[in-house]
């Protein structure tokens, strides 16, 4: 089959792929985007946005139950999971329409099917509708993302556990949900499903929740889960699973104890979607874990082939994929942009939220970076007091004196995700911590807490 030639072939329509397609298309370049699944990738369909939609529904359920505390009387509260799903799906459907419209407006050719390399910059697509096409790009861009990993536990695959994809489409309330993994996906779903009314147990292999964060963060999240009625078992490994998720399950742990449950959600990290790509036939090297090897310009080992987003081993957040798109866009269009040294903020959308940017205390210690710590309880911020939401803390890492730069910031508490941007902006501008300490912030806002926080920075290292 003679290949069809395009200036640009993009595999995967996720965050990085779609923005690159729309940008190059608008510049009048020929672009083909190959997508085997949902148009627009994980974020709008099965990840960030639908989870935040459902989490907000769970917050409403929690607030209604708590209404009495605020002097509001309600009747008996019931959760309709079908309506929760319908609200989520309506948002996802609206976004699908926006995506399709953008693809059409940009003059991009959307090729629905699975692509794999058959030669340098040459992709064979097994079309979802049947048949195949062979596309050759002057440039090829990979944005194939990752999927939920399935740990090799005997009986796990046969139990048909849910991943985040199925959990977002439940339409019913699990009686007892077991979640394998106490990371981002596990914690966000655990709290939401518990608030809707499920019994929830988290089984986490490591000894801490969100184990890449500082121990005080893991401890605070453990306390939150405990207060919400989520059972957390740390340092446990499932040795075998029997039964079917959605019906009845027996999960045997190392050591022999057994947990009986009705539903199982696997949230134990991600596996890159490069295993079906025949990357070697395109001259594209993968690392030992299957991520595409790239340099800091996101060029792969093959001439004219770039990789972006999670498949390129970038931090697993949508805003990072978006920044990868900007790095590639600028490099392709004649500029020079690198991923090196970029500041990566992130938020965990539990209630309250966890937000972080820059160095953590553990990282500073490991890297031998001298620092000062400022820390206050969220309860000192009057805005949090007005909302009866005193849980959590604000913590900043400042360089050792006389260097007054802010090295890192963590907030666990109400509005943490919005507060994060203020400190990140100061960090991007290279402002000394004293600028925030002495800043005049509106009252009563959470930002006011930044003046309180930075006033706690020790003057001497
Ligand atoms: C439950 C959950 C919640 C999350 N919440 C957040 C959040 O709140 N904030 C945040 O920043 N991040 C969040 N993330 C992470 C975020 O979703 C990802 O980092 C982001 O979507 C990754 O985008 P990407 O560009 O790497 O590609 P993806 O969005 O993963 O897109 C890759 C696309 O490639 C397609 N594809 C794969 N192989 C092929 C092939 N061979 N041929 C054709 N097409 C192919 C796939 O179908 C997919 O559509 C969440 C993740 C999960 C799982
Ligand atoms: N709010 C957000 O931005 C958001 C939300 C969800 C996901 N994400 C992204 O998606 C990524 C993947 O999320 P995730 O929760 O799947 O992974 P994760 O890496 O955050 O957490 C995985 C957890 O599973 C545990 N684990 C691994 N194998 C296990 C096993 N066999 N049994 C029990 N526990 C096991 C690990 O100890 C770890 O605590 C995150 O790292 C994050 O970057 C972001």
UniProtKB/TrEMBL annotation:
Claim: Ion transport is one of the keywords in the record: no
Residue stretches making up the Pyridine nucleotide-disulphide oxidoreductase dimerisation domain: 344-450
Residue runs in coiled coils: none
Xref: InterPro entries: FAD/NAD-bd_sf (IPR036188), FAD/NAD-binding_dom (IPR023753), FAD/NAD-linked_Rdtase_dimer_sf (IPR016156), Pyr_nuc-diS_OxRdtase (IPR001100), Pyr_nucl-diS_OxRdtase_dimer (IPR004099)
Residue ranges occupied by any FAD/NAD(P)-binding domain in the UniProt entry: 9-322
Cofactor(s) the protein requires to work: FAD
Keyword vocabulary terms for this entry: FAD, Flavoprotein
Superkingdom assignment: Bacteria
Keyword Transcription: no
Gene3D superfamilies noted in UniProt: 3.30.390.30, FAD/NAD(P)-binding domain (3.50.50.60)
Pfam hit, one: Pyr_redox_2
Family: Belongs to the class-I pyridine nucleotide-disulfide oxidoreductase family.
Protein name stated in the entry: FAD-dependent oxidoreductase
Lineage of the species this protein comes from: Bacteria, Pseudomonadati, Planctomycetota, Planctomycetia, Isosphaerales
